[in-house]
Design a protein that fits this description.
The protein has 223 residues and is of the alpha+beta class. It folds into two domains: 5-48, no CATH class; 62-214, no CATH class. Helix content is 35%, strand content 16%. It has nine helices and eight strands. The strands form three sheets. Strands 1-2-3-4 form a four-stranded antiparallel beta sheet. A two-stranded antiparallel ribbon has the order 5-6. It starts with 8 loop residues before the first helix and ends in a 9-residue tail after the last helix.
């Protein structure tokens, strides 16, 4: 059978799709060179529709693309972690930073270090960061990704820590029902990538909790 004219190598060599540059064609696949230097064979349709953009999952360029996507979820978690530990005005500060809980320098000074740990340690949509030792700090050796039930089982009952300062009042965070789950406001903010002030502002506007975390930004003044 005569080779399809659209795949005649001379007409396609040098064209680039994503990070892959076509250098040849054989056995119904393009031979490509990735920007990272590795070789890759790919079906033409996969190149044209963007299904394949790099030489594979181990490609550092593929990891960069994944990092950008994961930032949509992990960045709010990282910011929330820092706020709880270092911002006296943040919800939850009293039971985190207020009693001496800190974030290790590696994570505090570099989001991408936290992002890399998050991916390599089993991050999945729907999980939240949890300290294994509730009196320990946020650091790789003391953190994991946990379900809501795992976190609930790992809570102080009631909080048994010695508060700092001495005037701190023990309390258990208020919980809310949302989409069939029982979560604290902090967990809701982390789960749905919204700030607590943003959620509370919408609640004051008369929205339900579900609307506050899912409805597009229509109101003037929303952040």
């Amino acid at each position: 059978m005569e080779q399809s004219k659209k795949y005649i190598p001379e007409e396609w060599i040098g064209k680039k799709y994503g990070h892959l540059t076509i250098v040849g064609y054989s056995k119904k696949k393009f031979d490509c060179i990735c920007d990272c230097g590795n070789e890759k064979r790919a079906k033409p349709s996969f190149l044209f529709n963007g299904h394949i953009k790099t030489c594979g999952y181990s490609c550092p360029l593929h990891q960069e693309q994944y990092d950008r996507k994961s930032k949509e979820r992990l960045y709010p978690i990282w910011r929330g972690m820092l706020a709880r530990c270092y911002n006296p005005k943040a919800d939850g500060y009293k039971i985190y930073g207020g009693r001496g809980i800190t974030v290790c320098d590696e994570w505090r000074n570099d989001f991408w270090a936290f992002n890399k740990w998050g991916i390599n340690s089993g991050y999945q949509e729907g999980l939240s960061i949890d300290r294994i030792n509730g009196d320990g700090n946020y650091e790789p050796s003391n953190c994991r990704w946990a379900t809501t039930q795992m976190q609930r089982d790992n809570q102080h009952d009631p909080y048994t820590f010695t508060p700092k300062p001495d005037s701190f009042k023990r309390h258990k965070a208020k919980q809310y029902e949302v989409f069939g789950e029982t979560l604290t406001m902090q967990q809701i903010a982390e789960r749905y990538g919204k700030s607590i002030p943003f959620i509370r502002y919408r609640l004051k506007l008369g929205m339900t909790l579900e609307e506050a975390i899912t409805k597009p930004k229509y109101f003037k003044g929303e952040q």
